[in-house]
Amino acid sequence: MAGLTPDTPTPTALTVHQQSRVLEIAFSDGAQFRLPFELLRVYSPSAEVQGHGPGQEVLQTGKRNVDIVELEPVGNYAVQPTFSDGHNSVCSLGTTSTTWVASRSSSGRPTKRGSPPPGWTATPPWSKLAVRPAATTTEDCGMGSTHFGFQNVDEKEKAGRVRGVFDAVASKYDVMNDLMSLGLHRAWKAYTVAVANVRDGDRVLDIAGGTGDLARAFSRRVGSRGMVVHTDINEAMLRTGRDRLLDEGLVLPTAICDAEHLPFASGSFDVVSVAFGLRNMTHKEQALAEMARVLKPGGRLLVLEFSKVAKPLEKAYDWYSFQVLPRLGKWVANDADSYRYLAESIRMHPDQAALKGLMRAAGFGHVDVHNMAGGVVALHAGIRC
After folding, report:
1. Are 329 and 348 in the same domain?
2. Domain range holding 201?
3. How many domains does the chain have?
4. 260, 283 contact by CB (below 8 A)
5. In terms of domains, do 52 and 170 share one?
6. What is the rounded distance in angstroms from the CA atom of residue 102 to the CA atom of residue 92?
7. Which of 175, 240, 284, 343 has its CA 20 to 30 A from that of 72?
8. Dist CA 267 CA 5 (whole Å)
């Protein structure tokens, strides 16, 4: 993300790839972003506008059943999306790259080259979020072998298979969370938000944010001066979360991010959170180091993850994990394999003490461990040195 501010890179060019439905944006520092049409949206600064439809002068797209069907360049610094309901809009490149702020012109025609569209009223706070040049992603590497559940696979293969798991479960993810945990995941996340101690004006990065539970909760605490960036490496999960938040009238900056190669400048955030995502990352040490890098000194990292249960619970927990979960996944999501992988990935994840050691090695001088539900879940809260 970047905006026209003195200390951040500025957009220099855009390319529309119609066949692959991707918008490519180049920045003055060499960074490039490729954004699928499905993740683009138009945001109205007016709090009164919850969606868009025929007759509205101010538009917000990203709602369910409203998609971008065509995207045309307007000069070098703007694009005109045409929506599935027939509306169009002109979006200036000069204000923000991953969240477009614009209004529909009364004539429906493009504004002149490089100028902001009519009705421009505000610049969102995340337009000042600095970026750094894009790095090679985990899926591009594939240099060695790692585990996918109990299987030993190539690193590149793991990235694709993890993506396949979440592509498959995205639409049923929230329902399955409620069923698997008997609703306890809501209490675990609420406790995470409380421990994070987010204040008005804070900047929060939610990694592996999925369907947006933590992002929503944090956004209520940071106020109008703060910012919550909702990210995930999986487009299906991110789109599900973005649509859900938009349906609630909540617009957050949204980006596809690989946690092992975060595209944000060092010291950008006060708080970083990752809930039930770290165990799926191939190089956990690198991901934790990246989280430390983007935090300000004294910033807080919250890692909520499945962990090692207390010994008296082991037999019952194993039976539930390997006998009940796959059947539940088959019944609700028509996908037993993804939930078998979930059970296996939990067993391959570092336990409480090992993860605490990894966090300290990554630059977190103080790490507290909060066990919940007998160790089924643990919250690791670290302070960046």
Report:
1. yes
2. 138-384
3. 2
4. yes
5. no
6. 7
7. 240
8. 17
